[in-house]
Amino acid sequence: MAAATSIDLTLGPMLTGVLLATFLFGVECVQLYMYFRDFPKDSQLLKGLVTIVWVVELTHQGCTMHSVYWLLISNFGNPHLTTSPVPATFVLPILFSAIIVLLVQTFFAHRLWRSTNKTILCIIFMILVVARFILTGVIAGSAINMQSFASFLKQFKALITAAWVSGACIDILMSLSLCYDLHTRRSGFVRTSRLIDRLIVWCVATGLLTSVYALIIAICFLTMPDNLIWDAMYIAASRFFANTLLASLNARRSIRRMDSQSTTNAISSSQFIDIGARTHNTLDVPLTVVVTETKTKDLENGLQRGMHKHARS
Potential cystine with 140: which of 69, 95, 152, 305 (Cβ 3.0-4.6 Å)? Predict the structure, then answer.
């Protein structure tokens, strides 16, 4: 019974994590197809970012599949599995996940800079993003020479926890900074407030997903050190970052329709979540211009209604 319980809490979570990662990779492939289908005029830089993320994710998926095969087939019935040397496919996903997080967080930092134009703040965020990547790189480099999985987790427990918590904090801080900047641009006009409210909700939804997920992994890792439940979530962690990136890009089509009566809103809301994309049919209009122009339209409508009432009286 004890052996069955041990397998359920070690090999079981790892198999579950691979299945979850495979499902999310399928979702990612669908989003990739939708992106190239719906936005053929995006810049080559943006298309290159999306392609690199998908290729790294594909390699990550191959490594995780080999890892679960090595665990469940090649070492079937091995009682010393947790103390045995592991293949390189256990280490490479750590590095691949770090690359995905670096690319996605850089994308959102650039989006924050485009919206707020706060260069110093965005530079600070990028320093934190690069520092986290270096920290994860140190962990991955040290894992190459590890003697066993159990000893590696014990030795680098503090660094692993710091990497997850710092990544979650970066996502939260960037989301809060963007939401605060949008909130300061609110006005008493209905159309402007409706646009900003929807953008704030969208930013919170995309930013908190990855941060909450990372915090849950850290909590499971610290509170349940005797099992690998946390690993089931960690295997699929990079998929959440990649899907968040693609969802952000694909959401432009629906955000353009947030206010069908205002063409300016539609143009700028799509540019707000873009990262330097250029199309032949749209202009790069900052969000401040949209808010100003929307305020002007609301003010003009209010003045016109006031003049009609005054004429009738």
Answer: 95
